[in-house]
């Protein structure tokens, strides 16, 4: 019996040598890499990653691992870090780990042509055509499903385009209004300066001085008193609320510390948990004390008291008096023309102030809309701004004890089914749209990744965060929710917006996936 086995092994090894001699190609190496396995003039060859290690060419595939990178044994299982190329004629080429070569098992999952068992006593017929038929049937189903999603996606794209055009149109109208009002402002300002210059030439300095003495009593003192009265009233009310808050906090603290956990009172337990969550997220409030009010009063009095400046005018020479008055006007932005009997200047000054406010507000609104909606809009809303069409779209699904509400460009909330505790914010969309270029049996053309940050802080943990992976589907639906890390929630979402055409993916996505992706079938072949 031993002699028969020995004879069989000798026969197989001899057959292998004849196979190697008859084939100039090195077994286990892809055609594109065969040029790396050519001997030099001395019939020597060096390891691919270690050029300093020289071997005889016949040491390649001699079933002994000589190279640290395993490159000398592409066709055997001698090197643990090696890999074997399966040509898989009729399907797609692939690689398998070297330990699977000649292991007595037909590894049809990745080597459907059976070439990995060329030197074993097992027969592995080529089943690549069969596998290709199954793949094509599956792929065609995916394409049909994807086409349905694409038809729905077109509707979203049209809606997104209309929304973006509305924003651009509104910006154009606001910019036109801004230019019109700004031109009016420039015109009024120039007119004001001319009238003011004439008034300064025709009026005596005493006209300014006489009215400056009464500014404190007429304007500033009443303003200061009213303001301080309002602040005092606010402070009294705040202290009362602050005191009541601490009384309530002490009551809940005592309940939290002294509650007997063996008592199965869900209402009390939920209240304690909600209180802890609330307290953990509570910002510390610094109340206004009496010294703060005193310092504020002193500061106001020093800032708005014009007596010293008035004395400067009265004691200054005639040449310097108008300079001091000009400083007062610009320092305190006084509408002093109401007090020097020049109603024309006062009216123009009022119009200028109103126009300035309106122009500033329009400019602020334009900047906010432009920064949020126009700059890097593809990064925020995706190609063709597809997410705009879902800006008001929220979906929800129940998993276990919680209802998860997901808003595509808004927030994610976790809500208890029983409604006995408060809702928890998982995160808010950070306007970072990302296409994931992947290719597997459930997602041929890619998916969309959205990140939601700055959620509520976990009890004794980090800030909550949400990551949504959106895959092609014919409806907007939450498929699954998981928590792979503490307080980081992952959402699998289906939506037509994640259905792509074959040439939709950014960069060379299809070339990348065709080269690197393996398809796995879990059924027996």
UniProtKB/TrEMBL annotation:
SUPFAM superfamilies: Mannose 6-phosphate receptor domain (SSF50911). InterPro entries: Gtb1-like, Man6P_isomerase_rcpt-bd_dom_sf, MRH_dom, PRKCSH, PRKCSH_N. It comes from the Eukaryota. GO terms for biological process: N-glycan processing. GO terms for cellular component: glucosidase II complex. Residues 171-205, 345-372 form a coiled coil. Residues 1-24 form the signal peptide. Keywords: Coiled coil, Disulfide bond, Endoplasmic reticulum, Signal. Residues 392-501 form the MRH domain. PROSITE patterns: MRH. This is Glucosidase 2 subunit beta. It comes from Ascoidea rubescens DSM 1968.
